[in-house]
């Protein structure tokens, strides 16, 4: 046996490539970081794009959230003084919280949705990694 064939302490074969980023767990983290980075670049990069809150749905969500923040009534969403109970209030709560932190700007109304989109991309990548491990283990010759 050659002195380069095994480790003297453990008698295990030496690996030429000992890069933890390319081991399965490290590669999965690296892959997820790439997915999060690209998604954040896309979704957060377009927050301040020229079309402000021109769409009526986005504008009504922002106006309802702004009214909710100014009035202090976090239970009943209102749009122009009229109860706006068409949608669940969580979107208004999140946008109103964003307004409380960043101010009532159009880009502040988009931050919660961009964050949710990035988290959805990360969750999809996690599920794809999980499904590929399940598929690989099911197709291995040792799986009974």
Walkthrough of the structure:
The protein is mostly helical. It has a domain at 54-129. It has helices spanning 24-45, 56-71, 90-102, 106-138, and strands at 78-79, 82-83. A two-stranded antiparallel ribbon has the order 1-2. A hairpin with a 2-residue loop joins strand 1 and strand 2 (82-83). The two termini are 36 Å apart. The mean pLDDT is 79.
Can you give me a brief rundown of this structure?
This protein has 144 residues and is an all-alpha fold. The protein contains four helices and two strands; from the N terminus they run H-H-E-E-H-H. The two termini are 36 Å apart.
Largest sheet: 2 strands, antiparallel
* Parts with pLDDT < 50 across at least 5 consecutive residues: none
Mean pLDDT: 79
Helix content: 55-70%
How many angstroms separate the termini? 36 Å
User: Measured on Cα atoms, how large is the radius of gyration?
Assistant: 25 Å
| Sheet with the most strands: spatial strand order | 1-2
- The succession of helices and strands, N to C, reads HHEEHH
User: What structural class results from the helix and strand content?
Assistant: mainly alpha
Give the oligomer, counting copies of the same chain as homo and different chains as hetero. Answer: single chain
Task: Specify the number of helices.
Answer: 4
Give the amount of beta strand, in percent: under 5%
